[in-house]
């Protein structure tokens, strides 16, 4: 056992020093992680809403395509999906840099999961709402736009904030294809100074703090946005 | 076209070998997560306050940590401490700990869903606390947990692909090796994805059969969404 | 209804408080072998608390309870041994949801009394037959009516061969048309000489089946006596008021 070494390493022999040294670069990496997360979740939001509408209101073809997409994505690992996009697409002459590939991959992945939250939310809004909207002369699209979606978006907030946390955590997978986010930054630093454990310990700590803070913020936002009587059943 | 199909056909034995490693990983980590998760759940529900709080902290920590980060930290951490554990073992350990946090939540939910009057009735018959857990709580809680557990299965099955990062030759890495050798990236990774898809649906289908086999009138777990995020 | 002089239960100065509220404020009584005691009174009075103290599902704060010669409240008593000798029937049945009627009755015999399987099965079937449910032995609780579930729970308690049966409002959760079948089983038990304490709002049952009636209110025994006295000539004004209200609610004291 090298406990003494660990303790020394952590206390005197410059663990704090190391942390200070690499902090700027890790902060850079954290920023990229956030950028990646936000873009992916945004892409997932747009895709998720479209997929959900396709599954609820689409004709047979649209229904089957969106359903197949959702099932495929939810049944396969996000890592393999990233491989398909980053290494597989060049087969069709589509070349993306690793960060773009990660954003698109995580976004398309998230879309399939968000689609199910939205579908659940839309379906939990009573048929009566749709009928009432049609009864005052709205078209189908208008009813979706002005009656169904505003409610669905509200209902979907709790599962959606889970999805945000989830995407933040799973954005670390981008490191495997070399996107310069937090984990990859740690990897680069460690490959130079060979202090893998210590560097990744700091990285892990940053993730932990980010996840806990954002969870807390989302909790608060959820409480603020709550409308009585409008919840996912 | 034909030569590409042939390529996949020839790679199939390797892919199957990878799939078997993936399943071994999944089964072992689920087993570890099951035992630890049950202990954590029982500790949270029946334990004295300090134990319950400790268990909640454990659960919170592992749920907040990205699994890939956890895996890498443990991988280098064990080496740093001079513990030599093969990559497969490290993966099972880390995934197992992580899964136990999620499984404890499933079990806690199903333990709390049991009507408390039954516990009183069992105690009134003269059963000890342990007997109540063994004969009343667990048989019901485990049945109620199957739907949630099925979701956990599909979640961890996909997560095992992260073992790629520490060099375990499971399905994703096996595919990676074939893909880089043959340069047929898209084709190989699609095949890999389809195998994962198969494993996901096969596993959840088997668990559904199990659920039906063990079903008791009037005692049903909540149907969760299938293959949903394990959050 | 042969009541012997042997005392089965003795409760002495029982106290129990939850938080700042004192639920039981010194309750004392005895029950003799073969006696059926009815406890009546408004809800929230502490009747359930009292019953649960008797087998220590609730720990009393003060006071002592004996089952024959054994002090239940003594810290040296193995409470699981005592509980085997006291049957408890709950308001909402509390059958084990994952077990058939037969297994509900058999579980205590197998795991607590450690009887061999064959013997346990025979005994359990005998008890189910006694409450008229032999043909339902393989059904799960969810497949039985409320009245049938309550009869299974009585059989479950009887199978342990108890010296005393406690009933906590055994018919209160039942639809009116199902109450009769449960009361019938209880009446038969009383006639066979089972010692029992019954918390109930069924005044007809208390009057015609029980040997003693206790009227409880706000944690104390207000009045105690044979049913004739309590129902036709109550000594305390509170008792009279309570019985008046009950007959208003249920249309006559006898049902
Ligand atoms: N576990 C408990 N914790 C706190 N208060 C309780 C508990 N059990 C019962 N009580 C309170 O004790 C009082 C008496 O309850 P109970 O014995 O159930 O009355 P009864 O059976 O006569 O209706 C009630 O006010 C009830 O709220
Ligand atoms: Mg009561």
Could you give the count of β-strands of chain B? Answer: 0
Largest sheet of chain B: none
CATH top level label of chain B? Mainly Alpha
Structurally, the number of domains of chain B stands at 1
**What overall form of chain B do the CA principal axes indicate?**
globular
Along the chain, the helix and strand elements of chain B come as HHHHHHHH
Q: Please give the share of residues in helix of chain C.
A: 25-40%
**Tally of DSSP helical segments of chain B:** 8
The secondary-structure element order of chain C is EEEHEEHEHHHEHEHEEHH
What does the radius of gyration of chain C come to?
18 Å
| % residues in beta strands of chain B | under 5%
Could you give a short account of the major beta sheet of chain C? 6 strands, mixed
What number is the mean pLDDT of chain C? 94
Distinct ligand kinds: adenosine-5'-diphosphate, magnesium ion
Question: What is the CA-atom radius of gyration of chain B, in angstroms?
Answer: 21 Å
Strands side by side in the biggest sheet of chain C: 6-7-8-3-9-10
Residue fraction in strands of chain C: 15-25%
Protein architecture, described:
The complex is a heterotrimer of chains A (233), B (231) and C (255). In chain A, 80% of the residues lie in helices and 0% in strands. Chain A has helices spanning 3-11, 15-57, 60-74, 78-88, 98-124, 127-135, 140-155, 157-170, 182-193, 196-225. The N and C termini of chain A lie far apart (53 Å). The mean pLDDT of chain A is 89. Chain B is mainly alpha-helical. Chain B is globular, with a radius of gyration of 21 Å. In chain B, α1 (2-46) packs antiparallel against α7 (171-182) and α7 runs antiparallel to α8 (185-213). Helix content of chain C is 38%, strand content 24%. In chain C, the strands form two sheets. In chain C, strands 6-7-8-3-9-10 form a six-stranded mixed β-sheet, with helices on both faces. A four-stranded antiparallel β-sheet of chain C has the order 2-1-4-5, covered by helices on one side. In chain C, α6 (176-191) links the parallel β7 and β8 (196-199). In chain C, α4 (117-130) crosses α5 (146-159) and α5 (146-159) runs parallel beside α6 (176-191). Classes of the chains: A mainly alpha (233), B mainly alpha (231), C alpha/beta (255). Chains in contact: A-B, B-C. At the A-B interface, α3, α4, α5, α8 and α10 of A face α3, α6, α7 and α8 of B. Bound molecules: adenosine-5'-diphosphate and magnesium ion. Magnesium ion binds next to α1 of chain C. Residues 18, 23, 43-49 of chain C line the site of adenosine-5'-diphosphate.
């Amino acid at each position: 056992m090298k406990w003494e070494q660990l303790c020394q390493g952590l206390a005197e022999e410059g663990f704090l020093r190391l942390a200070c040294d690499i902090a700027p670069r890790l902060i850079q990496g954290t920023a990229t992680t956030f950028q990646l997360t936000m873009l992916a979740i945004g892409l997932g939001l747009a895709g998720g809403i479209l997929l959900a509408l396709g599954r609820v209101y689409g004709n047979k073809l649209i229904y089957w395509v969106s359903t197949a997409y959702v099932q495929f994505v939810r049944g396969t690992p996000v890592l393999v999906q990233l491989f398909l996009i980053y290494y597989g697409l060049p087969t069709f002459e589509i070349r993306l840099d690793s960060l773009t590939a990660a954003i698109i991959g995580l976004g398309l992945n998230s879309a399939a999961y968000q689609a199910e939250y939205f579908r659940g939310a839309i379906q939990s809004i009573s048929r009566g709402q749709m009928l009432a909207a049609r009864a005052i002369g709205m078209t189908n699209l208008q009813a979706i736009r002005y009656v169904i979606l505003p409610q669905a978006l509200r209902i979907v907030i709790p599962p959606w904030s889970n999805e945000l946390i989830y995407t933040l955590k799973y954005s670390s997978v981008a490191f495997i294809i070399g996107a310069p986010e937090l984990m990859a930054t740690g990897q680069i630093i460690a490959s130079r100074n060979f202090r893998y454990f210590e560097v990744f310990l700091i990285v892990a700590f940053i993730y932990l703090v980010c996840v806990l803070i954002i969870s807390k913020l989302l909790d608060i936002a959820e409480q603020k946005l709550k409308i009585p009587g409008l919840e996912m059943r | 076209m034909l030569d590409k199909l042939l390529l996949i056909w020839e790679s199939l034995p390797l892919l199957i070998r990878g799939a078997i490693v993936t399943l071994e990983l999944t089964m072992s980590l689920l087993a570890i997560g099951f035992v630890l998760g049950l202990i954590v759940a029982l500790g949270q529900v029946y334990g004295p306050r300090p134990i319950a709080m400790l268990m909640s902290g454990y659960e919170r920590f592992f749920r907040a940590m990205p699994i890939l980060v956890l895996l890498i930290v443990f991988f280098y951490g064990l080496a740093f401490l001079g513990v030599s554990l093969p990559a497969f073992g490290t993966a099972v350990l880390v995934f197992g700990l992580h899964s136990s946090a999620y499984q404890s939540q499933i079990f806690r939910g199903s333990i709390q869903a049991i009507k408390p009057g039954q516990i009183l009735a069992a105690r009134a018959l003269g059963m000890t606390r342990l007997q109540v857990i063994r004969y009343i709580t667990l048989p019901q809680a485990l049945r109620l947990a199957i739907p949630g557990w099925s979701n956990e299965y599909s979640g961890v099955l996909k997560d095992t692909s992260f073992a790629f990062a520490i060099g375990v030759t499971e399905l994703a890495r096996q595919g990676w090796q074939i893909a880089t050798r043959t340069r047929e990236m898209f084709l190989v990774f699609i095949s890999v994805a389809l195998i994962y898809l198969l494993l996901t649906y096969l596993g959840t289908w088997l668990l559904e059969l199990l659920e039906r086999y063990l079903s008791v009138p009037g005692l049903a777990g909540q149907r969760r969404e299938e293959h949903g995020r394990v959050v | 209804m042969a009541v012997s002089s042997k005392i089965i239960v003795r409760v002495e100065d029982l106290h129990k408080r939850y938080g700042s509220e004192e639920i039981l404020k010194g309750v004392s009584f005895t029950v003799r072998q073969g006696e059926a005691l009815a406890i009546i009174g408004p809800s929230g009075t502490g009747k359930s608390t009292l019953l649960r103290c008797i087998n220590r599902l609730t720990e009393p704060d003060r006071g002592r309870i004996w089952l024959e010669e054994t002090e239940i409240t003594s810290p040296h008593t193995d409470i699981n041994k005592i509980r085997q000798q006291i049957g408890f029937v709950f308001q909402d049945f509390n059958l084990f949801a994952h077990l058939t009627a037969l297994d509900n009755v058999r579980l205590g015999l197998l795991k607590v009394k450690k009887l061999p399987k064959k013997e346990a099965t025979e005994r359990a079937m005998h008890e189910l037959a006694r409450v008229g449910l032999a043909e339902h032995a393989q059904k799960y609780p969810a497949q039985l009516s409320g009245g049938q579930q309550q009869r299974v729970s009585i059989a479950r308690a009887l199978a342990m061969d108890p010296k005393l049966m406690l009933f906590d409002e055994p018919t209160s959760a039942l639809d009116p048309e199902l109450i009769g079948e449960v009361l019938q089983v209880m009446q038969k038990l009383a006639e066979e000489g089972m010692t029992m304490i019954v918390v109930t709002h069924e005044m007809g049952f208390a009057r015609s089946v029980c040997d003693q009636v206790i009227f409880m209110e706000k944690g104390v025994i207000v009045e105690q006596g044979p049913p004739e006295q309590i129902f036709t000539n109550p000594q305390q004004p509170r008792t009279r008021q309570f019985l008046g209200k009950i007959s208003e609610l249920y249309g006559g004291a006898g049902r």
